[in-house]
Amino acid sequence: MALPEAYTGSDREEQYRYGLKWARPLVEETTRHASDIFTFETHENALINASPFGLHTAMFIPTIRFQGSVEQQKHWLPLAESGKITGTYAQTELGHGGFVRGLETISKTATFDSKTDQFIIHSPTVTSTKYWPGGLGLSVSHTVVIARLIVDTKDYGSHSFIVPLRSLKSWKPLPGIELGDLGLKPGLNGTDNGYATFNSVRIPRSNMLMGLAQVTRHGSYSRKGKAQAAYSTMVLGRVNIIRVVAFQLAQATTIATRYSTVRTQGYGQYNEAHTELPLMSYRSQNARLLGLNAQAFALLFASKACMTIYRETKDATSYLHALVAGLKAYATRTAADGAEDARKCCGGQGYSNLSGLPEIVSLVTPQCTWEGDNMVMYQQTARFLMDSLRDVEGRKLHPSLSYIVDPAYSSTLPGVKRAAKAPTLHLPETHLALFRQRAARIIRSTSTAFAQTSATEGVPTAWNKHMLRLIESAKAHTEVFVLEAYISHVAAVENTAVRLIMQKNCALYALISILNSPDFFEHGFLSHDEAEVMRNLVDDLLDKLLPDAIALTDSWAFSDRNLKSAIGMWDGNVYETLMSWTRQLPINRNLPNEDGGAAGAAWREVIGPMLKKARSVGAESASEEKIRSML
Question: Which Pfam family is an annotated match for this chain, by its short name (predicted)?
């Protein structure tokens, strides 16, 4: 296999051109064949944001579909879906991110001019510069701009506007618009994350997306539908992030598992055979990698369950918004930490770009912050939880939260029955009971503390004071949903042999999660003896799953071209591939010619003059004379 083009250079423009090269067929596949396979992810299972045209399919088109009027959809969607225009989604500003209500477009940024029937899009400050949208720097002709709507000096909050950016004839920015690329990043350099400033740019009134809100010719404002519907695009984006990071974690785990099966190192402690052992045979290695693969499946099944709810809901309800926010935070943090751990499992080879692991880490890590910083996401989930518990007596509690007030899961109630007994600690229903009990206890205690502080010091003070507990509550509830999804999807597997393996995977995920979280053991609900039972269960599960480690990773069906990993090739030829790719690196191609390439330039410009200067200072020793004779 030839060296992947992604590894041939680090020049910013070269990487962008490489991104354009593979992004074009994805767009053509989407437009010519009405396919949605590349709407949210690339051919390499990265989020479509890695493409210069990623937000065109993932955000620009869905926003028009969700927020545009029927007339606007008829006008704009054919243009966008046929590829006659390209678009992005400009929400994030230099000084503002996921907090939509705080976007600094509050003064004259989307001001209605009734005399001309136009909106004036304006960036009043440096921090109101649109900053980070993919494709904005070089690749798109239009954008949806999220701006604050001002009509007759009245601020109606954030709304969406379609703004042309470039001439379709010359591709130059239109008057009043400044555009540019943000430069090199740790990853995602195939796309042109960019910035845009607007200096009193005028657009027709009809360019305001008016499916949810309207401004008439005479400046009358009206809103239709629920306010949450405006966040449908963002919620859909987060739902797809959850799915994509599951595959990215699986990619990293697949590479590390294959490498660890081939790589031999050390004899092991007290091993007299003096035969080097595969890395995968060490418990410290197989526990990490089998555990990571179990996590990847957990994220995949959670994403499937979440997508089902999204499709059935068809609207960004408070529950859906809270669920997706928590899952986005949990999934991205789990995948980012897991991908990095998989890289570390490969030792020095995992640090090489040729392993494919640094790129995966660089692709999954930023997802902890984009589309909403994870700490902010958890707080959105926590807000829903606190609001819901406050409404318990009014019977407004969502069905998914019923376990929180179930006496079976509250250790604070007298006579509560223990959910766990040593003989049942291997059962999924016991694992789920433990997850629910832990979450119910954390959420209830947090709600009580928050309510008490709110009553004496006010809600803002109470929220900041208990923020860590609120985040902990959101995470605990999210993990309940993840395990519920895991158990239900495994139970639905028809093939008996596969189902048995996946049940072991699910149990491994649950038990490792419990043992790694001290709050499961608070208040004595789980004993030290039961912890010892769970440790033994984990060891037993690892022994049973180890023979299927390669099969489990192969089940994700990644191709060699998808992984782009010299150490994770399906054929196991790690060292041959690694040396072949290394020799193909551009920096090594001119090595036979001592006057050319990087080595020749280094000698002429730096190394030769440096050594010559050093030799000219002071008398030469015998060893130095010998060295000089070699030069």
Answer: Acyl-CoA_ox_N
